[in-house]
Design brief:
The chain is of the alpha+beta class and about 475 residues long. It contains eleven helices and 26 strands. The chain folds into two domains: about 260 residues, Aminopeptidase (3-Layer(aba) Sandwich), CATH 3.40.630.10; about 190 residues, Alpha-Beta Plaits (2-Layer Sandwich), CATH 3.30.70.360. Helix content is about 30%, strand content about 25%.
Length: about 475
């Protein structure tokens, strides 16, 4: 049977775009402040989940909702189950957007909104792959469980709740990364460092507050520092020069004996800190050479050590594995308050096989425990790898090659996807090689042609895997 998958997918183009726009309009970021018994993660994630399940019901698929935190679309029959795992939650929009992040804009062949590339666009690309199979009357010889989570960007509460009662697929993929394939994912852990404050009084330069960051898995775009100091033209000039020299933007304001400094860098996914310019550490790098109060100086010293230290060399946790590559560090969240005697830094670390989180923690303690209490945040993941000779990997790479004419090779990332939930699970698309990586960044977008191309690949891949 010869099938033109691109042609079959193009048949649904208008429907796919319409469904995606409606889904993108839902602010589905985790909202614990407004959680209820019916909406454990807040109303947004549940609304997005039910929107996707409504699409599936409309199209004649069987569905199941698990406590408004996860769901399933069912297709096919057999003794083996293929899983397709995606998520409808998004990271916070943050600042720096040129348009409303939850009012999708179609411009220059792309859709701009929070979640277009991570993960609502890829989710619907894969779902429309199922629709193509259904339209063609193809009956998969395996069960297909299209599993939808609502908390992938945080603690994975949705899928953990799902698998308390539902069976795990035998194998599968998550459309939540990049092509050709991601068959290896580094471990993920966040460390929280809480400063030990000493008794002291304010000085000429006193760090009153420092704030930056939204989520552990995001390189912070912006940072704000409030400093008690007299009006100082030399200080003001130095800050402006620093911004210009480093090609950064920012602002400063003096009022009532305090400077408020703001600096804007470039956000990125914490899995790829090299793609960002950490607003927090850039601001700290400017402040570090001034004679601050003792507690402020301690806080700034660690922040300065973290500046551009994406491989952990300065903080002495650098490690590299021949298969998975180097450990990476994102200094993601900063909160300091002089009056509250509170200073906190959260580091998000992606680490390869060959090292474990206790070894990393021990190294931190050796260097920083005199100044900080160091703890491991509860939600963490160990490294995951599916060998390249596994039929799952071979089939997905062959499908990619058939549609792109490009060689498919194994891939390792620092990002974490639902693919790692399954022993034989990988990530497969939907970002193509050479495409802009705008996940977790302002002005997130995905090209419509890429969504359609990915959908054709997913349709063919599911077909091949369930013959």
């Amino acid at each position: 049977m010869t099938i033109n998958w691109e042609q079959e997918t193009a048949f649904f183009k208008d429907d796919l775009i319409k469904d995606l726009v409606a889904l993108l309009k839902i602010d589905s970021q985790r909202d614990i402040e407004h959680k209820t018994a019916d909406f454990p993660l807040g109303p947004g994630p549940a609304k997005a989940l039910n929107q996707v399940l409504a699409y599936a019901k409309r199209d004649g698929f069987a569905t199941k909702n698990i406590k408004n935190v996860a769901g399933r679309i069912e297709f096919g029959a057999g003794t083996t189950t293929l899983g397709v795992l995606a998520h409808v939650d998004v990271v916070p929009a943050g600042d720096g957007w040129q348009t409303d992040p939850f009012e999708p804009v179609i411009k220059d062949g792309a859709i701009y909104a929070r979640g277009t590339s991570d993960d609502k666009g890829p989710l619907l690309a894969a779902y429309y792959g199922l629709k193509v199979l259904k339209k063609l009357g193809i009956e998969p010889k395996q069960q297909i469980h299209f599993i939808i989570g609502t908390d992938e960007e945080s603690e994975w509460l949705g899928v953990h709740e799902y698998f308390k009662t539902e069976p795990k697929p035998d194998w599968g993929f998550s459309p939540d990364a990049e092509f050709p394939i991601i068959n290896g994912e580094k471990g993920i852990v966040s460390f929280q460092l809480d400063q030990h404050f000493t008794s002291e009084t304010a000085t000429d330069f006193t760090l009153q507050q420092f704030k930056s960051g939204i989520r552990d898995n995001m390189v912070p775009h912006a940072a704000t520092a409030i400093i008690a100091h007299h009006q100082d033209a030399t200080f003001e000039t130095a800050f402006n020069t620093y911004l210009t020299t480093n090609q950064l933007t920012g602002s400063q304001k003096f009022a009532n004996g305090h400077y408020t400094l703001q600096l804007h860098g470039k956000g990125a996914h914490a899995a790829t800190p090299q793609a960002g310019r950490n607003g927090a550490t850039f601001l700290i790098n400017f402040l570090k050479d001034y004679a601050f109060d003792a507690n402020g100086a301690t806080y700034l010293a660690l922040g300065a050590t973290l500046h551009e230290d994406i491989y952990g060399k300065n903080i002495k946790i650098a490690y590299q594995d021949s298969l998975m590559g180097p450990l990476t560090v994102s200094a993601s969240i900063f909160n300091y308050d002089f009056e509250a005697k509170s200073g906190q830094i959260i580091l998000n670390i992606r680490y390869p096989k060959g090292i474990d989180i206790e070894a990393i923690k021990a190294q931190f303690e050796q260097n920083w425990q005199a100044q900080y209490a160091i703890s491991i945040k509860p939600h963490y993941e160990i490294p995951h790898y599916v060998p390249g000779d596994d039929p799952l990997v071979k089939t997905l790479l062959a499908t990619y090659e058939a549609h792109t004419g490009q060689a498919g090779t194994e891939g390792i990332v620092g990002g974490g996807t639902y693919g790692r939930i399954l022993e034989r699970g990988v990530a497969f698309g939907a970002q193509f090689p050479g495409a802009a990586d705008v996940m977790h960044q302002p002005n997130e977008f995905m090209k419509i042609d890429d969504i359609l191309k990915a959908s054709a690949i997913y349709a063919d891949a599911i077909y091949r895997l369930t013959l």
